[in-house]
Specification:
The chain is an all-alpha fold and about 150 residues long. Helix content is about 50%, strand content about 0%. It has six helices and no strands.
Length: about 150
């Protein structure tokens, strides 16, 4: 229990530090959650490509998504009891469209999923995370992969 508790404290401390640094860098912009109308209008400017998936994987680690969702996205870590298994879109409670996943990252979902709008400095980075999350899905449910431009 001691090692698990210490790891949990380290993860929470890291998230708090990221929150403060991100808020300072962004100057408190975009503090309001997206409205349902704004979510419906969202379109990813980042194609679902190998390059984007690779960037998203790095961001997934950098922003400590592994702390709750695990390195494999299956949410089998014992930190948050109801973290979403990112590999099973049928279990998503707040939608599976790119815009809905983006909103969940940006604005959070209740007490178990904090918002990351002040920690993640650009919307492009959030879209790369969306693409990485898609890559965790069963292959038949993933968007069509777009070839990277040289």
């Amino acid at each position: 229990m001691g090692k698990h508790f210490a790891a949990t404290i380290m993860t929470v401390t890291g998230l708090i530090a990221l929150a403060g640094a991100g808020a300072a860098a962004r100057g408190g912009q975009d503090d309001k959650p997206l409205t349902p109308e704004q979510v419906k209008a969202l379109k990813s400017p980042i194609p679902y490509s190998k390059k984007s998936i690779t960037k998203g994987r790095g961001l997934y680690v950098r922003y400590s998504c592994t702390g709750c969702h695990g390195a494999d996205g299956k949410a089998t870590v014992d930190v948050v009891a109801d973290a979403t298994d990112l590999t099973a879109p049928k279990l998503y409670r707040f939608g599976t469209s790119g815009a809905e996943i983006f909103r969940s990252i940006r604005d959070g979902q209740g007490a178990s999923m904090p918002n990351y709008r002040s920690q993640i400095p650009t919307e492009d980075e959030m879209w790369h995370l969306v693409n990485f999350i898609y890559s965790l899905w069963p292959e038949a449910q993933r968007p069509a992969l777009v070839e990277d431009k040289p």
